User: Which sequence fits this backbone?
């Protein structure tokens, strides 16, 4: 059994009801969505999909009491961000982002920039945090149409001050799009309370679902302003050659990942039973234990904060004179799974001073144990001493 310290890549293991729900759907039901004759199995799939939208609306603070029509499914948050950014931003518009973003935000923005969208990248501090005054100053110097950024860093675990940023967006009438890849399911968050234009999520990290399912919680008025990125069969309005404008069909063409939705629904119910606060507290405890142990490893360099101060339990480190890829390889040989390199976030590494060499990332999850943390620390000390 390996020691999994790579929960920022995907949470693992999953709660037992998740794979069971995927299996039960595929073996016991398995009908397509809105593409049958309203048989019992067809209606079963329809109910499951609506129920999952309802649960997402409740868990992530959807608008109009979590109106399920304003929850869209995608394959992952990368697709969600592409749908929102390419669906809204037009040449001449200005979008603000931060220097801590994942390529899921930066790459679509760089493509849009080539088409005439102005991209403003705001610098974050050495802990990976954006000072809301930097954003305020930007908004006072020019008209900003959208702010898009991650809630929590996949590199160093920094959590951004989204309350202050959302207040500024509210005052200045700016669409706020949030990447919650690392925070949904781990930190309580409400799209409607923050006034988000779109909350983008992925199902397989803190939300504990399977890979291949993600989505968007929309502000209804913002969904109206966006153009669909993918068009095709929706199982509805089949007489129409044009994409329906009604939600959720507008942004959902093609057969959705129904086994993924089955698993995500089970995961949302499991999270509700355990409680996001309990999950967060447990991850913090394990993170603190790992952090304190790491501090005593000779030659360790932290990229980002070396305190627990409200961050996620995700740590980026290097060891003087050693290659993080080699260290990750040695740890893997000892049964400890981490992630070295650049973590799809070159800009974030530049911000934290770890570009181009990258860093070793360690990330605990709800199912990590104290024993696993201690084993990881022991192995890291051994590797660091061997040099
Ligand atoms: C902050 C952040 N945004 C976006 C993504 C992309 O997630 P996915 O591969 O599920 O689309 C990740 C994944 O590591 C992430 O950590």
Assistant:
């Amino acid at each position: 059994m390996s020691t999994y310290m790579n929960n920022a890549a995907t949470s693992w293991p999953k709660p037992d009801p998740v794979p069971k729900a995927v299996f039960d759907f595929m073996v016991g039901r398995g009908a397509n969505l809105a593409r049958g004759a309203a048989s019992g199995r067809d209606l079963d799939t329809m109910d499951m999909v609506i129920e999952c939208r309802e649960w997402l609306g409740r868990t992530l603070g959807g608008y109009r009491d979590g109106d399920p029509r304003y929850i869209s499914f995608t394959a992952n948050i990368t697709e969600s961000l592409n749908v929102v950014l390419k669906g809204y931003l037009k040449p001449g518009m200005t979008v603000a982002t931060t220097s801590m973003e994942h390529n899921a935000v930066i790459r679509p923005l760089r493509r849009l920039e080539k088409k005439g969208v102005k991209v403003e990248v705001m610098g974050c501090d050495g802990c990976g945090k954006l000072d809301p005054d930097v954003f305020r100053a930007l908004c006072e110097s020019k008209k900003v149409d959208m702010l898009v950024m991650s809630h929590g860093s996949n590199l160093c675990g920094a959590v951004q001050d989204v309350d202050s940023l959302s207040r500024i967006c509210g005052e200045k009438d700016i669409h706020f799009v949030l990447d919650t890849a690392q925070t949904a399911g781990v930190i309580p968050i409400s799209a409607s309370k923050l006034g988000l234009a779109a909350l983008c999520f992925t199902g397989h990290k803190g939300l504990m679902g399977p890979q291949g399912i993600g989505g968007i919680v929309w502000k209804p008025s913002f969904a109206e302003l966006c153009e669909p990125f993918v068009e095709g069969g929706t199982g509805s309005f089949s007489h129409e050659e044009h994409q329906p404008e009604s939600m959720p069909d507008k942004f959902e063409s093609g057969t959705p990942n129904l086994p993924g939705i089955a698993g995500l629904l089970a995961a949302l119910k499991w999270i509700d039973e355990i409680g996001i606060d309990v999950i967060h507290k447990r991850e913090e405890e394990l993170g603190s234990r790992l952090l304190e142990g790491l501090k005593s490893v000779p030659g360790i360099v932290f990229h980002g904060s070396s305190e627990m101060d409200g961050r996620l339990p995700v740590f980026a480190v290097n060891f003087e004179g050693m290659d993080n890829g080699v260290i990750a390889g040695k740890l893997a040989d000892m049964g400890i799974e981490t992630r070295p390199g650049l973590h799809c976030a070159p800009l974030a590494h530049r911000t934290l001073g770890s570009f181009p060499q990258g860093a070793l990332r360690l990330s605990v999850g709800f199912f990590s144990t104290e024993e696993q943390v201690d084993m990881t620390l022991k192995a890291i000390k051994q590797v660091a001493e061997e040099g």
Remarks:
- The radius of gyration is 21 Å.
- The first strand starts at residue 3 and ends at 4.
- The chain is about 40% helix and 15% strand.
